[in-house]
Design brief:
The structure holds 2 protein chains of 2 kinds.
Chain A: E1 2-11, E2 19-29, E3 34-38, H1 45-53, E4 60-65, E5 68-69, H2 75-78, E6 82-85, H3 99-107, H4 124-132, H5 151-162, E7 169-173, H6 181-197, E8 202-205, H7 209-214, E9 218-223, E10 226-232, H8 241-252, H9 259-263
Parallel strand pairs in A: 3-8, 3-9, 6-7, 7-8
Antiparallel strand pairs in A: 1-2, 1-4, 4-5, 9-10
Chain B: H1 4-30, H2 38-54, H3 59-82, H4 88-107, E1 111-113, H5 134-154, H6 157-167, H7 169-174, H8 179-205, E2 207-209, H9 216-230, H10 236-259, H11 270-299
Antiparallel strand pairs in B: 1-2
The chains are: A alpha/beta, B mainly alpha.
Chain lengths: 264, 300
Amino acid sequence: MISASNLKLTFGKGTPLENPALRDMSLTVNQGEFVTVIGSNGAGKSTFLNALAGEVLVDSGQILVDGQDVTRLPTHKRARNVARVFQDPLAGTCESLTIDENLALAIKRGQRRGLTAAVKARYMDQFRSSLATLKLGLEDRLGDKMGLLSGGQRQAVSLLMASLTPSSILLLDEHTAALDPKTAAFVLELTQKIIEEQKLTALMVTHSMKQALEVGSRTVMLHQGQVVFDIAGEDRQGLEVKDLLGLFEQQRGLEIDDDNLLLG
Amino acid sequence: MLSEIAFYGAIETGLIYGLVAFGIFISFRVLDFPDLTVDGSFPLGAAVAAVLIISGVNPWLATGAAVLAGMAAGSVTALLNVKLNILNLLASILTMIALYSVNLRIMGRPNVALLTEDTVLTPWYDLGLAYHQVPVVLFVIVTLVALALLWRFMKSETGLAMHATGANARMARAQGIATGGMIVLGVALSNGLVGLAGALFAQSQGAADVTMGVGVIVIGLASLIGGEAVLTPSTVFRALLACVVGAIIYRLAIALALNANFMGLQAQDLNLITAVLVTLAIVLPGVRNSVRARLTRNKA
């Protein structure tokens, strides 16, 4: 479980570029929930994810992961409980290392690293069988450099790496946005499969309202650094993009002017 | 051509600069941390070892102390960068400048002679080898041990974490790697190797001198880049081997240039030759690739 309460964060405080990114944001994600997060540019989606991961520290508020206060902890100390896939397919892996070396890095996420060989023979079966589920033939290419893989393949491996060891929450930051439509669909399908099979708790930021409603068990919309609505269960069933827009206007008295959200 | 003594001398210094190149490989290639501390940590290693040896300390212990001193110097650079957010290159220049004073303090004078002292080389002269071959034999052993340990380390969990820190720091943090700690460890290790090289250099040349560090970074980089041009560093082992091969080729090329009377070069031309060799090492792989591309295009 992950719980964020009253998060406030302002970038460039006291400068002409002062930009309040999170204004009193609160959200609790329960065990086993798959939450999709939408919002227009500048709504605070990425900042919220970065705050949960520890890449940025909030000015005030509290973040609990499984009841433990992690508000002041840096990224690497939260990594044991927080797994992540980035938007940039190149960001989640090391291209100068081989596939098995990347997986070996991920299998030790948040744990002590010693002086024994990183790529151990006993990992191999697990690596091969996990890679085989991708159906990309990567299980026979364990020794290949990551840089030889396409963006979609690398994003699939990133996803695998994030789910190689248990975590309290999986953060997905528009992880299909930089891929072509076909590859994006493949990675999204893979995401759903992994989350379902391993019963993961996940938070997925997306730019597409359609995707936000089709995937997951709960949808949260952010606007100007706050949660403007939060729907799950029966209320969410059968909801369409136009209903979501209606909800948003009703809540805010605003019109959405971000074409990406409407067209995505 | 090259006399036998000049040849062995080139191999001997080449092996020492191979250790420097190992250090530069860790900072420049693994951590992507351009570290110029080496110009200070090389004479630091030499100074520490020399001063301890003339005060009667066992030469191997003195050499060990030189390694620790180098590691301390590297840690200072890394901490200036990680904790105080000083740009890595600038942090290393600050440490390098500071070390000049530190080295003078350690020695108490600009140079310390070791010609009459027992060094790590002394017992090896009794083995019946020719005088000029002794350092080469010992340094080959030291280099092989260092190479084996480094190779093993780079393949370890910590070594891989260090590699990830240099290659993709954001990913490394997300995997729970304390990237700041990895930078400190790596730069310390790098300068520890350079300190070792300095200590061995002082013992084989018979003196430690405060100015002996000038340009060590360029020689180390020349060795690294030259080695990479000869041996494509597709694996960590090949990359480490390239450091040694590059350093030896570099020293042989220098010796050849200086000994070839027909070229009319003299000892003071050393830095000019170095600059030319480094430029060639950087440019040649590109030329080779474009020539190859042109040849295959013509065939097709």
